Amino acid sequence: MNDFLAVANSAFMYLVAGTVILAVVAMSTVFMIRAYREGIRLGIDKKKLQKAMTSSAAFTAVPSISILLGVLALAGKLGVPIPWLRLSVVGALQYESVAAQMAATGLGVPFTLESMNESAFVGIIFVMTIGIVWGGLFCIFGLKKYQSRITGKPGKKDARWGQLMFTAMFIGMVCAFVGAAFSDLRGYGDKDATFLSLAVMIISSASMAAFTYLVKNRGIKWLENFSLSFSMIIGMTFAVILKLAGVR
Amino acid sequence: MTERTKAENEKEFIERLHRQGRIWCSACILLMLAAPVAIGLRLNAWPSIGGVAKGVFSVCIIYIPVCIVEVITYSPLLGTGASYLAFITGNLSNLKIPCAMNAHEIVGVEFGTVENEIVSTLSVAVSSLVTCAVLALGVMLIAPLGPLLSSKFLQPAFNTILPALFGAMGFTYFSKAPKAAIAPAAFMTALCLIIPAAGGQVGFLIPLGAAIAIIWTRFLYVRKKLGSVG
Q1: Is residue B14 part of a domain?
Q2: How many angstroms away from the CA of A10 is the closest CA of chain B?
Q3: B217 found inside a domain
């Protein structure tokens, strides 16, 4: 193994990464238990709470595998523990490789395994960490104030508009990804034009329509928690099939 | 429970979430920042301050605006507890937001209510735990799994995970309020067809799409053109 990779994959790195990840696991566990207890205390149906948990667990499995791919993608240059840490805590799939690349450029080191050395490695971790903590910092210092401005005083708002606004907000988010799929049709930068993104979007959407029909009209209730994951898997399977069929 | 007591309990719950969120977020951020320091001490290897400053500047100039926009856009959808959690556990647009929205939809709660707050917190917490478990398992099995996951055969599937996710979620939300989707979908499609590189800046497209969708929906709502939604 390359000398640098031996250091980057050493037990100490796993210890550092594992400690921070454990803190995040503890935070998630505490929040989960407290929310559950509070739900029970407020008289929310236990089944509803359990449904929220099981549907979220089922939903998360597939996207988590793609996050694991992000770890793999960075592991060749930064070892396994640091990408594992970065993608388990605050990190985002889209952010980490770009941030690592920018950090290396700032430090004047090409982002390749051959050019990596210990001080560049530490520098990249510093930059990646400092670059990503802002969302958490804004939450600490500004979330309470921001939320009180958004929600205002209870009872004075138009409740229906409130619900619609949140739905619209999410529709806007989905539309951004619809747009991105159309961008892929034309290709940009070093990305080749591909029909796959749009095709997968249409197929997973149609699958979701079919599952919704089965749940609502055929009474297959157990499917509800898995509709989204199954729709994604069908869409992604079609991506493989279409690619094998020569679709670009 | 009387109405007054219930309202007080709810207010106290939200206050508590802010307090706990701030404490946990601060602790996690400090711990995160301690990681490179510990590694530097252990390796006795320090990068030049100028180099780190340059790197931090180039990353922050892009990501600070993105973070601000993310907090503004996502925290109303997530609620209090889930926001603190999600901004520490990360992977918001590709995982936590859709996950919380999915739970919201399946359980059937209204935005802005304590029920939604609880469902959202549970959803993001469970999602974070599952992600941590999958990643830990993946890291342990990296030798046998690595070649399989990075095989050329499976690449089209992993490259299209976001279109698959938002295609499926799109059906759920577009079918709830089809008229509300017309303007933002048309705008985003036109923008990305005319300027394809815009598709690579989803972080900026999301708040833009959300703003257009809100303005358009408000327009339809005021003119009573939305019909029944939901």
Answers
A1: yes
A2: 11
A3: no
